[in-house]
Write a structure and sequence with these properties.
Helices cover 22% and strands 28% of the residues. The chain is α+β, with helices and mostly antiparallel strands. It has a 10-stranded antiparallel β-sheet with strand order 8-9-10-11-20-17-16-13-14-31.
Length: 640
């Protein structure tokens, strides 16, 4: 038996050595050189200052002119440029130790603060691993950050899964961009940033599945860009005397952006175990999302008219104003959250809709609590606090008379999650609704309360979705925006186009590629198409890139006959989900034999003469790519 164990271990060692990549890390004074089969990278005092992609023989960095080439160190404040923060660029280098041929460690010291930077190469993936730890005799550590620069932006495009999918390049106005993960607003939706060059590029990712808060900072004062990647401690920061960056991974690639995106998506699925659309009965077939049909008898003819124009079994209808707060609530009082007791009209409406085959999704406010609710004094202890000041955040009174005041409760509280699950499960059991829309579920913050029941707000939001899915098997969940704290159990997610300024950032399908096997993208509260053709066209433009399924809002029966509405309904009838793939290889707007020919010409080629020929983004062109393009004939080009 011992001999068998020895042989097994020996065999495993041989396999590891056989699969490992050649790598060499050398230390010369304050500089660390890293060379692998994929890249050459240089660190100067803890900052990456040189990147060369050996797969494409391209260098992506240039010497800095006047601007610093990145900032690595420990933060005691919100921004790295504030004076109290400790930078490795001017701290004392205590030691630079080469541990072995694949790893090195640098230790910096400044006035009671130690920063340890570990640099290594993963023998299996060739990833450059960057890890930081810091301790200080001064309290108030916010987090750890490492810097990279200076990038030649004349030859690179920065692709970010943020605000639905963005790209920054040399045509983007000079600006500074700060993305917080997992963030709301134009937040960082996944822990990945891709830097695409002519025939390849490099990428930075993190493989943390605990949803710890991180940031990505892009700074371009001139034609070069400086990058910063950071890991944030849990607020409040006052007591922290140490910081640890979750390990960052760097690598280069040949091909287009889908090569690293596919690597990350495979990891993301393994790490977060999301439900695929195919796992939820009927979810994969939905091709039309309808917003805000009234639930009283006035809505019945709207359902009847819509059923004549679309397949109801492929149509999901969102409901607002379907519930109240029971005996304590009245129309004169403020909002009833988190009570969701169905109004009498809900039952007949759902029954009528189901007779046609429509799917029904009532909406709730995922973190809302009415200050007039009898239980609010108890739940106020879980109301979110400002990350930096620790003060409880009181929402301002609404400016519109139809809106009502609600406060934000952290779903890390098990009491709050139990209350939401109990309320919604009761509706699901009694009325047979097909899903629930969790409004504001994107809003996760580094809560100044600290951990609640051992969870951050991001972890609590992820658990709320998971517990709802487990309590109601097969339930569809919708949400506002999307990121890694919500995607695992969110079937439909709004992609708000107002978060992207098309005069600055470019739209990019990166988020659709990452999330489309698990979540349908829907439009963000669309207007009736024929009332505002320009706005409708803008939605179509965004939807073409982001893979948004047709989303309709109407409230009168005659509106179904509008020309633009008819076109939208026709697109819903013909909608096909491509899950982030695009067969328009030559970019002429149609998928046909010319695209198939380009793919055929690149089969087995390395490097590719046309990187778009790698349809599935696995880094090579083969028969699978030919099949994908052939299946997309008849003009379907949308990246969905």
């Amino acid at each position: 038996m011992k001999r068998f164990v020895f042989l097994a271990k020996f065999t495993l060692l041989i396999l590891l050595l056989a699969c490992s990549v050649d790598a060499a890390i050398t230390v010369e004074g304050e500089t660390v050189h890293v060379e692998t089969d994929n890249y050459v990278v240089r660190f100067d005092r803890g900052v990456i200052t040189y990147i060369h992609n050996r797969l494409t023989d391209k260098t992506y960095t240039v010497p800095p002119v006047e601007w610093p080439s990145g900032w690595t160190g420990m933060l005691f404040n919100r921004y790295w440029w504030e004076g109290e923060n400790i930078s490795t660029s001017w701290a004392e280098l205590i030691s630079a130790t080469q541990i072995d041929s694949r790893s090195a460690e640098l230790l910096f010291h400044h006035e009671g603060t130690d920063i340890r930077l570990s640099i290594a190469v993963d023998p299996m993936t060739d990833d450059l691993l960057i890890d930081m730890q810091g301790v200080s005799d001064t309290r108030g550590i916010v987090g750890m950050q490492w810097g990279l620069g200076t990038l030649d932006m004349q030859n690179l495009s920065v692709i970010i899964p943020a605000a639905g999918g963005q790209a920054l390049d040399a045509t983007t106005p000079i600006a500074h961009y700060y993305y917080l993960y997992p963030g709301s607003g134009p937040g960082w939706e996944a822990q990945l940033a891709i830097f695409q060059g002519e025939r390849g590029g490099f990428y930075v990712r993190n493989t943390d599945n605990t949803l710890q808060f991180k940031w990505f900072y892009y700074d371009r004062p001139e034609n070069e860009a400086v990058l910063h990647f950071g890991t944030q401690n849990q607020a409040p920061f006052d007591s922290h005397t140490s910081g640890h960056s979750t390990m960052w991974r760097f690598n280069t690639y040949a091909g287009d952006w889908r090569v690293p995106a596919r690597i990350y998506r495979n990891w993301m699925e393994q790490a977060f175990q999301p439900r695929r659309l195919s796992d939820i009965p009927g979810a994969e077939d939905i091709t039309l999302f309808v917003s805000a049909v009234p639930i009283d008898t006035y809505g019945f003819p709207l359902l009847d008219g819509l059923a004549e124009l679309v397949d109801p079994t492929k149509t999901l209808i969102l409901l607002w104003n379907w519930a109240d707060g029971g005996t304590w609530w009245s129309e004169e009082r403020e909002a009833h959250h988190p009570d969701y007791f169905p109004k009498p009209e809900l039952g007949p409406f759902v029954e009528h809709a189901h007779q046609h085959g429509f799917r029904i999704m009532p909406a709730i406010l995922s973190t809302g609590f009415s200050p007039t609710h009898p239980l609010y004094p108890h739940f106020r202890q879980y109301q979110i606090r400002d990350t930096w000041t620790g003060e409880i955040i009181e929402n301002p009174p609404p400016s519109h008379p139809s809106e009502q005041l609600v406060e934000t409760i952290n779903p890390a509280s098990s009491e709050y999650r139990n209350l939401i699950v109990e309320r919604l499960k009761s509706v699901w059991e009694d009325y047979g609704v097909d899903g629930f829309f969790l409004d504001a579920n994107h809003g996760v913050y580094n809560d100044g309360n600290g951990l609640i029941d051992g969870l951050s707000m991001a972890q609590g939001m992820a658990l709320l979705h998971k517990e709802l899915a487990e309590a109601m098997p097969g339930i569809m969940l919708g949400g506002e925006r999307l990121h890694e704290a919500t995607f695992a159990h969110t079937t439909f997610a709004q992609r708000p186009h107002d978060l992207v300024d098309r005069n600055k950032e470019k739209l990019h399908p990166i988020s659709g590629f990452l999330f489309s096997p698990f979540t349908h993208a829907i439009a963000y509260f669309p207007k009736y198409p024929d009332d505002d053709p320009a706005y409708h066209q803008e939605l179509l433009d965004y939807g073409e890139v982001w893979g948004i399924i047709p989303t309709l809002r109407f409230w009168e029966l005659y509106q179904l006959q509008g020309q633009l509405t008819q076109e939208l309904l026709a697109s819903a009838r013909n909608w096909e989900h491509q899950y982030g793939l695009n067969g328009d290889v030559n970019g002429d707007g149609i998928v046909n034999i010319l695209d198939l020919t380009l793919v055929g010409q690149n089969v087995g080629a390395m490097p590719l003469s046309h990187i778009q020929a790698d349809i599935n983004g696995d880094g090579l062109v083969d028969v699978l790519d030919l099949i994908l393009v052939a299946n997309m004939f008849e003009g379907t080009t949308t990246v969905r």
